[in-house]
Amino acid sequence: ISDHPIFHNNSNNSQLPMAIQLAIFLNHAGNYGNSISLVDVSQWAGVSVGSVVNCTNHVMVALLDQHDAFMGFPSHNSRDF
Question: Closest Cα partner for 25 from 60, 66, 50, 65?
Fold first, then answer.
């Protein structure tokens, strides 16, 4: 997903590296319930709450764009059908 355009911009304000954004996303997605909040993730990562939201959104867009490449139904002729 590192080559996805969402991780690249022409702004004067650069984005966090893709690996950091992915780590923030995985920390956020890997916890559930009241044990995790945006504030908890932002404190863990040392970034703002808004950056946690942006990183989560960027990684989700990149992953969802890969959906059709990796998900599908087997054909009727397939042994997996």
Answer: 60
